[in-house]
Design brief:
Layout (H helix, E strand, L loop, with lengths): L4 H15 L1 H18 L7 E6 L5 E2 L6 E7 L4 H19 L4 E7 L8 H12 L4 H10 L4 H4 L1 H5 L3 H11 L2 H16 L7 E6 L5 E8 L4 H25 L1
Parallel strand pairs: 3-4
Antiparallel strand pairs: 1-6, 2-4, 3-5, 5-6
C-alpha cells in the first residue's frame, strides 16, 4: 500500500526539518545491529514512489531510464562507483540522452565528514557547480579530514567562507536531512544504493533497488535491462492506441 502523495511529502519534509533525524539515526543503528545478529533482510527489492524533485541531476528529463543513487562522500565504496562506474555510465548513456542520473545524500552517522561534505556540495548547486564539487569530493576523499570539504570544493578562501556559511544554514541542513529521511522511509540503509527503472517523471521515480558497488559490466546490464523494459512499455502503449 502506497502512502498518499501529499501526506508522504509532508512526512519526508518534517523529518528533514529535523523532527525525526535523531529518531532516524537511532533506528538506523538499531537496525544495523539487528540485521547483523539475526540476518534479517532490510533492503526492499523495489521502491514504488521516490521523491526526486530538486535533487542534483545529470542527463535530460526525457531520458528513458532514470538511475538514483543514495551516496556518502566519505564512503569508499561510493568512491569506487564514482571512479569505475559513473564515468563510463556518463560517457555511454547519460551524455547520449539514454539515462538520467540523480544524486541523493545519505551521510552515514559513523562518517564524521560526510554530512558537511553533502551540505557543501548542495551549496555548490546554487552556483551551478554541484557536479564539479561532487567529483572533487570523491577524488580527494582522503583529504576530507585534513583539508575540509569547502577547501576541496574551491581553493579560493572567500569562496570557502561562503560555502561554509551556506552549509551551516538551516535550509541547507534540511535538504540533506530530507534525503536521509526519504531513505529511512524506503528502508535504505547502506551506501551506495541505486534505484534503477524506466523514467516516470521529473518529480518521482520508481524501480528496482540494488545495494552496494558493483563492476561496470554488471551495472551496465542492469541499465540495459531497464532500457529494454522502457522500450517495451512504449511499444505496448503505442499498440494499445
Amino acid at each position: 500500500v502506497l502512502m498518499p502523495t501529499l501526506p508522504r511529502q509532508v512526512a519526508v519534509f518534517l523529518l528533514g526539518l529535523g523532527l525525526g533525524v535523531s529518531i532516524t539515526l537511532g533506528i538506523d543503528q538499531l537496525t544495523f545491529k539487528k540485521a547483523r545478529t539475526e540476518n534479517e533482510p532490510t533492503v526492499p527489492s523495489r521502491i514504488e514512489e521516490l521523491m526526486i524533485d530538486g535533487s542534483p541531476a545529470l542527463g535530460p528529463l526525457d531520458a528513458p531510464v532514470t538511475v538514483v543513487e543514495f551516496s556518502d562522500f566519505e564512503c569508499p565504496y561510493c568512491r569506487r562507483f564514482h571512479d569505475e562506474v559513473l564515468k563510463p555510465l556518463k560517457r555511454e548513456y547519460i551524455d547520449k540522452g539514454r539515462v538520467r542520473f540523480i544524486h541523493k545524500d545519505l551521510p552515514l552517522p559513523f562518517h564524521r565528514e560526510a554530512d558537511l561534505a553533502a551540505r557543501v556540495a548542495r551549496c555548490s548547486q546554487s552556483e551551478n557547480q554541484y557536479w564539479q564539487t561532487y567529483t572533487r569530493l570523491f577524488e580527494r576523499q582522503s583529504c576530507l579530514t585534513c583539508e575540509g570539504a569547502a577547501a576541496i570544493a574551491d581553493p579560493d578562501p572567500e569562496a570557502q567562507k561562503r560555502l561554509n556559511n551556506c552549509a551551516d544554514e538551516a535550509s541547507t541542513r534540511t535538504l540533506v536531512n530530507t534525503d536521509r529521511s526519504e531513505a529511512e522511509l524506503n528502508g535504505i540503509r547502506a551506501t551506495p544504493t541505486f534505484i534503477i527503472g524506466p523514467t516516470v517523471g521529473p518529480d518521482t521515480h520508481k524501480g528496482q533497488v540494488h545495494e552496494g558497488a558493483m563492476p561496470w559490466p554488471a551495472f551496465r546490464r542492469l541499465v540495459d535491462q531497464a532500457l529494454t523494459q522502457a522500450t517495451s512499455s512504449v511499444d505496448t502503449n503505442t499498440e494499445a492506441r
